[in-house]
Amino acid sequence: MFFQQLINGLTLGSVYAIIALGYTMVYGILELINFAHGEIYMLGAYLGIILLGFFTASGLTEQSLLLSLILTSVLSALFCAMYGFTMEKVAYKPLRNAPRLSPLISAIGVSIFLQNYVMLTQGATDKVFPIQLGETVLTFQDVRMTVTQVSIIAVSALMMLSLRLFISRTRIGKAMRATSQDKIMAALVGIDVDTVISVTFVIGAVLAAVAGVMVAVYYGLVNYTIGYIAGIKAFTAAVLGGIGSIRGAMLGGIVLGLMESMGAAYVSTEYKDAFAFVILIVILLIKPSGIFGTDLPDKV
Amino acid sequence: MFLPFKGPESALIFFVVLALGLTAIFFMGKLRIPTAAWNSIPSAASRYRTPLIISLAMLFTVCPLMLNNYYTDVLIMAGIYAILAIGLNIIVGFTGLLNLGFAAFYACGAYTYALLNTKLGLGFWVCLPVSALFTSCVGFLLAVPAMRLRGDYLAIVTLGFGEIMHLILNNWDSLTHGPNGITGIAPPMIADISLSDLRYFYYLVLIILLLSLMVIRRVELSRFGRAWKAIKENEIAASSVGINTMKYKLFAFAFGSFWAGIAGILFAAKMQFVSPESFTFIESVLILSMVILGGLGNTYGAVLGAFLLVLLPEILREVQLYRMLVLGIGLVLLMRFRPQGLLGIR
């Protein structure tokens, strides 16, 4: 039982972690809660179902399951990257010097818009992926672990590792770190801040899209409301780890996933979603800077 | 061939919206709307304030005599939302504390009356102050720990509170009957006359709305209102001139929630039924949109915003399906082109 929940929690947690990275990177640079980030994940999940359905119908899945899954993820990521880019340019860039409240409300607007247009075009009911993927189950004593779960954990780990390398080793990664420390100074030393912000949104959207595809395959169904709940939980993960901190978001996601599956197993299934909110409120009240965050004094 | 979506054309919509968004990028920067006409609205409104108020009051007094039940019903809802909006305006507009869980307080007022009435048999007039004060206390108790946070964090905590309230209402079956809600709530009575007739109920809402406008206007012009506005402009400067910011922020939360309680009990008494479905996150966003559309910090603006956002979808019935879609785009455009709202002054 305990180890079973550990596996489930790890799977869930790694998905939260890669969505949380999008929140934390945007917050680190713009100090904006990108409320619509969860909707990008939802779009990714819908595209996952649509593309996989398309590949299955055209016979590619039967020939090579791996290839069709990879193609689905890549196309979905590409598409969501464009959405992320557009979203930033339309809804946030014009408000960069506006009062703090404005971009947040604009973000809520984007979120409502995306949710409703997916609902109107794709229907309000759950979309089910009709073809069962041939699941191999690995059994270790009494703990069952599906190949999908293992691949979700592995892919997430791979993506987090590459993100870390990208941010620590590449030129644009260095520019991102500089911008998150001080936008004006970064611009003074010749960094194109607009490009850095766009890149941040694109990376966040790619991560969210892949998370969406993985969840679509894992559960086999999507709904237009999944983005809101997943978004809040991923945001909780980001706050838990210390918002603005990359490794914090990773750790926060895993911890939140574990807490949630343990809570659902040992405390109450009905209030499963409430754990995230309670954790969020408690963290914000006790230590708003999270595990890895730093306390910043008020600027006068 | 089976595809798990509603045909290729519905998937193509994804591309169409993206393409529209991408083209919008190039026009967002260049587009200018003429501002002179906009800017004359607030000054014109304040110049003709007295005749405007008198004519509006007369219009709204005779309204139910000329309209059928359906439109009276819509006007009642507009009135209830107006009370909610001016309540939220105290918190967000005057004091600058973003509250994304206002529907939770609304729910609190509605469920207090629903439970007191169905379980204990208490009447509307007893419950009115009880509900309002209880909601006010809940607002105060939430605010005590939450006031340590600022800006976005406060918004997220109130959002989390709203979701927790919704989950509790949905899952505490023995008390709230979960998603089925509570039925058979009594309408208000005056002597032996039941106010369940929509026309009577309309006047009840109208009177309470006018009273709340008067009270809030007085408070806005008092020491409290000035302190709230000072805190909104600059909290550190406000505390340096001797304003106890903590005290005034707590009071703003309690006073704003008070009106949510009033609106909640009116809603429960009108519907004679409450369920968690009426108090979702979208509801909070809707109320916030009313305040923002009217103009943050402007009480009359909040009323205007509430009436516009309730009446417009009713007038444009064909586009009802696209109501939320338009609300989303509207919020983005409003923030871009007129962040101060219709009646706000920059």
Largest sheet descriptor of chain A = 2 strands, antiparallel
Number of helices, counting only DSSP H or I runs of 4 residues or more of chain B: 15
- Structural shape of chain B: globular
**What share of the residues of chain B lie within helices?**
over 70%
First CA to last CA of chain A: what distance? 53 Å
Radius of gyration of chain A equals 19 Å
The unreliable regions of chain B are 1-5
**CATH class of chain A, anyone?**
Mainly Alpha
Q: Low-confidence parts of chain A, pLDDT < 50 over ≥5 residues?
A: none
Strand content of chain A: under 5%
What topology emerges from the helices and strands here?
The complex is a heterodimer of chains A (300) and B (346).
Chain A: H1 2-30, H2 37-57, H3 60-63, H4 65-92, H5 101-122, E1 127-128, E2 137-140, E3 143-146, H6 147-169, H7 171-181, H8 183-188, H9 193-219, E4 221-222, H10 226-241, H11 246-266, H12 272-286
Antiparallel strand pairs in A: 1-4, 2-3
Helix pairs in contact in A: 1-6, 1-9, 1-10, 1-11, 2-4, 2-5, 2-9, 2-10, 4-9, 6-7, 6-9, 7-9, 10-11, 10-12, 11-12
Chain B: H1 8-28, H2 36-47, H3 49-66, H4 69-94, H5 102-120, H6 124-146, H7 151-171, H8 173-176, E1 182-183, E2 189-190, E3 193-194, H9 198-220, H10 223-233, H11 235-240, H12 245-271, E4 273-274, H13 281-294, H14 299-315, H15 323-337
Antiparallel strand pairs in B: 1-4, 2-3
Helix pairs in contact in B: 3-9, 4-9, 4-12, 4-13, 4-14, 5-6, 5-7, 5-12, 6-12, 10-12, 13-14
Question: Care to describe what's here?
Answer:
The complex is a heterodimer of chains A (300) and B (346). Chain A is mainly α and 300 residues long. Chain A has one domain: ABC transporter involved in vitamin B12 uptake, BtuC, CATH 1.10.3470. Chain A has helices at residues 2-30, 37-57, 60-63, 65-92, 101-122, 147-169, 171-181, 183-188, 193-219, 226-241, 246-266, 272-286; strands at residues 127-128, 137-140, 143-146, 221-222. In chain A, the strands form two sheets. In chain A, strands 1-4 form a two-stranded antiparallel ribbon. A two-stranded antiparallel sheet of chain A has the order 2-3. In chain A, strand 2 (137-140) and strand 3 form a beta hairpin. In chain A, helix 1 packs parallel to helix 6, helix 1 packs antiparallel against helix 9 and helix 2 packs across helix 10 (226-241). The model of chain A has no long low-confidence stretch (mean pLDDT 85). With 346 residues, chain B is mostly helical. Chain B has a domain at 63-283. In chain B, the strands form two sheets. Chain B has a two-stranded antiparallel sheet with strand order 1-4. In chain B, strands 2-3 form a two-stranded antiparallel sheet. In chain B, a hairpin with a 2-residue loop joins strand 2 (189-190) and strand 3 (193-194). Chain B starts with 7 loop residues before the first helix and ends in a 9-residue tail after the last helix. Classes of the chains: A mainly alpha (300), B mainly alpha (346).
